[in-house]
Amino acid sequence: FCALAVLARASGTEPESTAALLRDRALADTTAYRLVESLTTDVGARPAGSAADGAAVAWAVARFHALGYDKVYTEPVTFPVWRRVAESASVTGPVPRRLLITALGGSVGSGGPLQADVIAFEDVQALQAASPAAVQGRIVLLTRRMARRADGSGYAAVLPMRSAAASIAARKGARALLIRSLGTDNNRLPHTGSVVYEGGAAIPAAAVSGPDTDLLERLLRGTRPVEVRLDIEVDTGARYTSYNVIGEITGREPTREVVMMGAHLDSWDLGTGAVDDGFGVAVTMAAGAMIKAAHQVPARTVRVVLFANEENGFDGAQAYAARHAADRASHRIAVESDWGAGRIYALRHVPADPVLTGRLARVLQPLGIALDGAEGVPGPDVAFVAKRGAPWAQLAQDAADLFDHHHSANDTLDKIDPAALRQNVAAYAAFAWLMAN
Amino acid sequence: FCALAVLARASGTEPESTAALLRDRALADTTAYRLVESLTTDVGARPAGSAADGAAVAWAVARFHALGYDKVYTEPVTFPVWRRVAESASVTGPVPRRLLITALGGSVGSGGPLQADVIAFEDVQALQAASPAAVQGRIVLLTRRMARRADGSGYAAVLPMRSAAASIAARKGARALLIRSLGTDNNRLPHTGSVVYEGGAAIPAAAVSGPDTDLLERLLRGTRPVEVRLDIEVDTGARYTSYNVIGEITGREPTREVVMMGAHLDSWDLGTGAVDDGFGVAVTMAAGAMIKAAHQVPARTVRVVLFANEENGFDGAQAYAARHAADRASHRIAVESDWGAGRIYALRHVPADPVLTGRLARVLQPLGIALDGAEGVPGPDVAFVAKRGAPWAQLAQDAADLFDHHHSANDTLDKIDPAALRQNVAAYAAFAWLMAN
Ligand SMILES: [Zn+2]
Ligand SMILES: [Zn+2]
Ligand SMILES: [Zn+2]
Ligand SMILES: [Zn+2]
User: Fold this and answer.
1) Exposed site from A27, A160, A328, B310, fewest CB < 10 Å?
2) Contact call for A43 and B95, based on CB within 8 A
3) Which of A249, A261, A257 is nearest to A295 (CA)?
């Protein structure tokens, strides 16, 4: 890293040239890959409230220290624990067939096996329009397929099936909800994600793999009723204290606002949380490490926040927002990496400062990143400080493939392209440096 | 079908024009798709010796009749039953991790949980070279990856890991064998297939999903021993009588040799046997149905044979060969569809008759099928009559994607391209017509 420091001095210390050096150094650096390899190998799945949640926190603290961060600390986050214990489903008539399903995060259990006829609707709108008499006593199946889009916008279109439909079905008297997995793949691996019950209207809710949903649809085209048996056992009631893990590179002017980069440390239980969000953890930790290793001190403090329990309640983000929104040192900008493992193609929602945006545009352009003027969206954790007024930005990633693996057992290390990972680190490091100076 | 009969008469009844008409008619026909849709929906997985094996036999008999075949009959095939009861595996040290595995067909059970350190080898050659002292008391892991090739030849290169390695490991004192799944995908779905024990050297044998094998390899690069716990329960000992199901279009000259098209009716238990070998069942049944519907009687009888238990013993093929090799009406040619769901690109191993090969070349050329002069291989069931001297041919399919899904839970209807299926039916119908006349 000495060579870099020398080069930085040689080419002047103005922010733009240092940002460009950080960018180029990151494109040849393997720190991020080694981080996500270690997180997925040595810790693995780390659902909020599990033993691995604690292991992940310890891992993150140790890694921040090893990477040379100036300040490493944790902030407690307490939440109710939801744990998948067992889940199974099968068609019992007209022909016996096994179904591959997974309970949605937060689902209530079925209290033993539950058996009922299936009634299918294409989406939440069709379910809302259905008469309670048609739904009463049945298992509701929602069948809409998610569209593949480079910006991942197909997800928002089907998300109400997972988040909102269970309570709608419950209020019409349904006994359980099954949904086509929110995914763009055709693997027999269901995709989990959290369900949100409204006003206590809670029935068991599970996602069915795509090919198994196809099978149910074909059986439902027959003349005989399709009966499904569902058995979901969950463990709830306990409370757990996890931690947001924070690492900082202390700035020269510590009373100024911080530049915050976030990701979430927890993951779902089915895969190993490589893409969601081991990738983001690795990108932000490595980007901070690049800055530290540059041997130039940024003007503002660079803060990397690894949030607790994003997946099943956003508890870490809420705790962070409550604690830090009114900090003396509040946020210069907050940015989050939690949208898959694709390359970044756009930077959005940056301050309207022509000197700054000119620098950002020039430094990011060689990475294929444009300031495309789109409005953008904050990351899911950053959204909570954004709501309280913190400035935020988005480094928008190509998400065309994200939903092939998202929230399924397939979220494993092999789904990460090391070159795309390095491009992300380069962008975050350069962006953070320019925002910090 | 009347229009076709009229057209056939209008353009003369010589074999080539009728073959061309059958080909073109098949390209617009949905019979095959409806067959494989029904087999995978109404029967599903049909492992040899299961209740679904019987359901599949009844399904095939009924469908042959419904398709207008002149003669439909079954021939008994008796074999020992192997049934998967339960299987699980996990890494117990240095970190607890769940592994996604599946027992190989024919594997012995573990007699309860079995726990041992893992020793990895790249392939069978490396295992053979290992000293028994290194292997003794351990679980052997074979890690070689299968290469993706259009002709599927990557499979043969890794097949000994599945078929032969267990006994080699057993003779060196290993307690169990794990292999990287024989597949070209990166899904967390293990691929099964049969193990062959040699001389009673039997230890539990299972396939690990690709990403889980990656994890084991990463853990093994660490300094601490990697311990795995494996629990495989199987059910063996019973004998079962299934049936080869045969449908015939009776020829004008029934004392002449038959034209035989084969596929296997059984499947593995994990998927629904759509590609392997519902596709072949649909292709051959539909090709015969096209010939029947042409309202012209072929000179030779066209026989479609759906073999019992190809997957776990070739028992149907052996019974058929023993019974029919010496038939008065023996085989003009035997051909089999059991190499995935890809398009056919070559016809191989046809009789050296210039008039016949000229016709075949001209009729198949519009389908993108060439008589490329390669030696070819008989299908796995046809190989048994071929060994006894029956002439055979190969309609070679593109198998670049076959091993993404082969023998895994992912072998479902959505993996079949209806257009490729129709191209296969067109080729089989035209080929059979030309061979029968
Ligand atoms: Zn996430
Ligand atoms: Zn997520
Ligand atoms: Zn097969
Ligand atoms: Zn097979």
Assistant:
1) A328
2) yes
3) A249
Closest Cα to residue A251, out of A333, A329, A352? A329
What are residue A149's phi and psi, to 5 degrees? -135, 145
Residues in chain B within 8 Å Cβ distance of A41: 215, 218-219
Residues on chain A touching B217 (C-beta within 8 angstroms) = none
Q: How far is the CA of A201 from the centre of ligand 1 (A)?
A: 26
Task: Decide if B316 contacts B309 (C-beta within 8 A).
Answer: yes
| Length of chain B, in residues | 437
In a domain, B109, yes or no: yes
Beta pairing class for B394-397 and B344-348:
antiparallel
CB contact under 8 A, B414 and A210: yes
- Show the beta-strand stretches assigned E in B34-174: 71-93, 97-99, 101-103, 114-121, 139-142
CB pairs A-B closer than 8 Å:
68
Q: How confident is residue B1, by pLDDT bands cut at 50, 70 and 90?
A: very low
Identify whether residues B274 and B404 lie together within a single domain. yes
Residues B228 and B264 grouped into a single domain:
no
Residue-level pLDDT at A329: 65
Residues with Cβ within 8 Å of A34's Cβ and at least 6 positions away in sequence, in order, are none
Q: Do B151 and B229 belong to one domain?
A: yes
Do A272 and A218 sit in the same domain of this protein?
Answer: no
If pLDDT is split at 50, 70 and 90, which confidence band does A254 have?
confident
- Write down the pLDDT at residue A8: 44
Q: Report how far residue B139's alpha carbon sits from residue B115's, in angstroms, rounded to the nearest whole number.
A: 8
Nearest to A392 by CA among A342, A334, A341, A325: A334
CB A337 within 8 A of CB A263: yes
DSSP bridge partners of B348: B394
Unique residue bearing structure tokens 């961060």: A69
Domain that holds residue A55: 2-70+250-436
A188 → closest Cβ in B95, B218, B409: B409
Round to whole Å and give the CA distance between B278 and B44. Answer: 10
B142 has which bridge partners? Answer: B121, B179
Q: What is the DSSP letter of A243?
A: E
Chain B residue at shortest CA distance from A41: B215
**Relative orientation angle of helices B418-436 and B279-293, to the nearest 10 degrees:** 50
B264 shares its domain with B404: yes
